[in-house]
Amino acid sequence: MFDARVWLLWVLTMLIAASSTRNPLYTVLMMLVTTVLGVTCATGDEQTGAQRTILSPIRFAAIAVPLSALFNALTIHVGDTILARLPDWLPLLGGPVTLESLVFGAQNGLTLTVIFTGFAVFNQVTPVRDLVALTPRAFHEAGVVISIALTFVPQTTRSLKRIRQAQAVRGHRVGGLRDWPPIVVPLLVSGLERSMGLAEAMVARGYGATTSQAQALRTSGGLALGLLILLGGWLTFLFYPAWRAVGTGLLIGGGALVVGVVWLAGRSVCHTVYRPRHWTVRDTLVVAGCGMALATILLPSSLGRDTLHYSPYPQLTWPIFDPLLGLGLLGLLTPAVICEATRKLPQSLPPGAEPVMKNDGE
Q1: pLDDT in tens, 32-78
Q2: Which residues of the chain have pLDDT under 70?
Q3: Helix (H) or strand (E) holding 342
Q4: How far apart are CA 168 and CA 177, in angstroms?
Q5: Are residues 120 and 244 in the same domain?
Q6: How many folded domains does the chain comprise?
Q7: Rounded to two decimals, what is the model's pTM?
Q8: Are the beta carbons of 286 and 338 closer than 8 angstroms?
Q9: Do 144 and 248 belong together in one domain?
Q10: Smallest Cα–Cα separation from 297: which of 12, 21, 103?
Q11: CB within 8 A of 22, min separation 6: which ones?
Q12: Domain limits at 289?
């Protein structure tokens, strides 16, 4: 439904928002937003080739939050509310176990859960082919290799499932390493057959038959020079405080050189799209929602920005929630609103089609 660039901007906005706050109330709000998106948008994109995550967000939270809380409580001995005390002779663990450190660890685990859920939703709603299409033209060969590799993964999984079912029908049971060759050998043979078939199809279509471009050496030299300038600027900025302006200039110049070389190399590559995606009003609305959330988080003059920072130390207190800031974070919910509104609209008939009328007697 949405452009892949829109979903990429959304997940980056979610990552910035989750990393910019330690207030558990805002974190829970973002967790609810990502959950709603996973329910409303992911189900509508099941036919687009998007992948399902192996570990659900709920299972991830059930693992990450307790482990993070326990680790922080055992290693950070700060806080006024003491729950227990471990012997001082224990290295790193010895000392008081406080409620404040337990809450702070659980808060960090919840932040990790929000980040994981955001990327899980991005994985569900974005087809692999759309992500590969975002590869710069200068790296088209790498994009083809990645596309083939990502395509072979689900094919291999389906082949493994079929082979195990066929062997089970023949009475074969997997009980140890000695029982795997009847499954691994057919899987390897089928994979080699698919690879040979794909290679023959690519050769028949002329892939790789073009001669190397003359500017390949100039492109490599430009990229190497740009990366060297970037490295020099980074080292200057870190180790020479008096020359930070020079380091910043080198960073900007090196980055501009790398981007320029990649852009010039991409212009010489012929690029065709079988089924192009057009930018729509819905994409613009999602970008506007992400912009509203970013402005709420990053702008220094935004109302309630001080409530983003929360610490339970030295004594546990209730975090402050600002309604205006929470309303700004709801801009991340724009894709879910559009998906739900689109689902409720009547589906239009294709051009030239007429509705089928049935008689009462039928």
Answers
A1: 999 899 888 875 444 444 455 556 788 888 999 999 999 999 999 89
A2: 43-55, 208-216, 271, 273, 300-305, 345-362
A3: helix 334-344
A4: 16
A5: no
A6: 2
A7: 0.72
A8: yes
A9: no
A10: 21
A11: 107, 111, 308, 309, 310, 311
A12: 4-207+281-343
